[in-house]
Amino acid sequence: MNNRAVQVNRLPEPGPLAADTFTIVEQPLPPLNDGDLLMRVIYLSIDAGSRGQLDDRGDYVIKTAPGQVMSGSGAVGQVLESRHPRWKAGDYLATTVSRWSSVVRLKGDTPLLTRIDPKVAPLEAYLGILGMVGFTAWVGMTNIARASAKDCVLVSAAAGATGSAAGQFAKASGARVIGIAGGSAKCQWVEQELGFDQCIDYKSEDIAAAIAKHCPTGIDVYYDNVGGTIQQAAFDAMNTHGRLVLCGMVGQYSGEGEAPGPNLMAAIIKRLTLTGFLANDHIALFPEFQAIALDLYQQGKLKHQATVTKGIENIHEAINSLTSGKNTGKQLCQIGEVD
Amino acid sequence: MNNRAVQVNRLPEPGPLAADTFTIVEQPLPPLNDGDLLMRVIYLSIDAGSRGQLDDRGDYVIKTAPGQVMSGSGAVGQVLESRHPRWKAGDYLATTVSRWSSVVRLKGDTPLLTRIDPKVAPLEAYLGILGMVGFTAWVGMTNIARASAKDCVLVSAAAGATGSAAGQFAKASGARVIGIAGGSAKCQWVEQELGFDQCIDYKSEDIAAAIAKHCPTGIDVYYDNVGGTIQQAAFDAMNTHGRLVLCGMVGQYSGEGEAPGPNLMAAIIKRLTLTGFLANDHIALFPEFQAIALDLYQQGKLKHQATVTKGIENIHEAINSLTSGKNTGKQLCQIGEVD
């Protein structure tokens, strides 16, 4: 059995990734030392940062140069072979870091390496609402914005992985929750499956008017995944003492440059707090999150959905699906069989 | 003795106020009821909000319509007559609200009506670093930004009332403090009199280069009084986990419209917190502030300076002095004699 790895072939221009961005290279399996395990990867997490790794900007993610193998924020898979007492062949597990290859070697005591049970939730969910993406949503909505039953919460990219999770955690806290998503199919899913109170279709509605209609008393919490004009519309509708949680600006990850942001005078007038965060800074809370999220999931209060691109050779399409907003819920790339 | 009051004559166009913006009207003295006092006003506080009261924007300040008498954020004066046991004729006092007239009637138990001692500090200081302006600086720097000896702090409008106070409170906390002000005279005053570590002259220096030179490890706290291009330069130089305190954007108060703000992607990458605040929301802390500030003042750790425009009939010039940045330290209008 050989190992197939996703190597960067050339750095891309702005816009969608071409098929020759990556080369799939065959490598020997890594040797297994005491304390290690080999995992065959079933799903890889595809994140906004995956595109960012190929751009020359900021310090948001580690850069990956041509000739290097990509890495990402998570994978689920199954133990092939173990030399660590905690793990045995056949165990399912999730990791919050992963090299992009069909087999990865992990230390058995890697922090946040988690045993998962496909009978409790589908494997995909452990990379979505029960994984780092759910954790990111929970940290922003619960710890930073402190959303409560008193609040009207607005979430952009509400059909995306983080947004769909963020809105559900806000609903679980009792808030009124309005989503923004692109297209009626996504909006219907957000309202009917996820239980948001309303979802605004930015492709067919006037965003400012729709916000005014659905949040007539204003927005207390805005969970921003997109930046740009939607951010500006939300900013304009914030209530006094509102909280803006800045989680992502997916429209900006394709290397197409930066538009200006909102004039911050309103932040004084309305005494707003804007907080940018990265979930990794809060990683000590991950076990607390996992217990809470699994409990809510089993109560039926959290739903999971993934958009799965199949085949390691199509992984550039998985990234394009995310950056172009084609995904509903968590974007994954499936590179191994589910038993 | 008649009472002279500042009545709005007409709402201004954008830009400096013309002499006919206000009319000085003669009014009878208000009757003195039990529990009241009459104060002859010596100094009136002139604030950014004074200009804002005449503009049709936001809810930052109460609007004042033509025919109405202006009010402001503070005055110091002397008791003319009292029917409240706490006060007697001749007492000096400071109030955090005031009608703009030569004599005002106050309830003797008005919250934050403070007995002041011209032997401890000049009367002007009680409207500056020992008054609401000092309080605003202290709330932002101490309670919101939590500036400490570990921080490099940048303060814009460092020769202005709030900025000069904010930087001094940061110095008192042990931080390294860099100011930004306009012109070498102001910068010299900020460095030599106020004890800032450096002051950047935005009129003759490249702001970004000067920030990089004086804060080589980046900015931890930015206390923003101006918005605009200086805000952008500060934003670009912020450290990871930096705090931006948004206190004022004096360049925007003349009704000349809003420029865009910084793109907030950097707030995610650098995990910044931006907090807009108004000191009035924190007014319960005012007595605590007064004790701390008076103590620091008596230790020589706080300096006061005011720019005083003389004469109630010149009060539009006092506002213009502030909005055009001509003032050093707190802008006041003197409308009564100091004994």
Automatic annotation (TrEMBL), chains A, B:
InterPro entries reported for this sequence: ADH-like_C (IPR013149), ADH_N_2 (IPR041694), ER (IPR020843), GroES-like_sf (IPR011032), MDR_fam (IPR045010), NAD(P)-bd_dom_sf (IPR036291)
Coiled coil regions, renumbered to chain: none
Alphabetized UniProt keyword annotations: Oxidoreductase
A Pfam family assignment: ADH_N_2
Domain Enoyl reductase (ER), chain residue ranges per copy: 18-333
PANTHER family registered for this protein in UniProt: PROSTAGLANDIN REDUCTASE, PROSTAGLANDIN REDUCTASE 1
Protein name in the entry: NADP-dependent oxidoreductase
Species this chain originates from: Spongiibacter thalassae
Organism placement in taxonomy: Bacteria, Pseudomonadati, Pseudomonadota, Gammaproteobacteria, Cellvibrionales
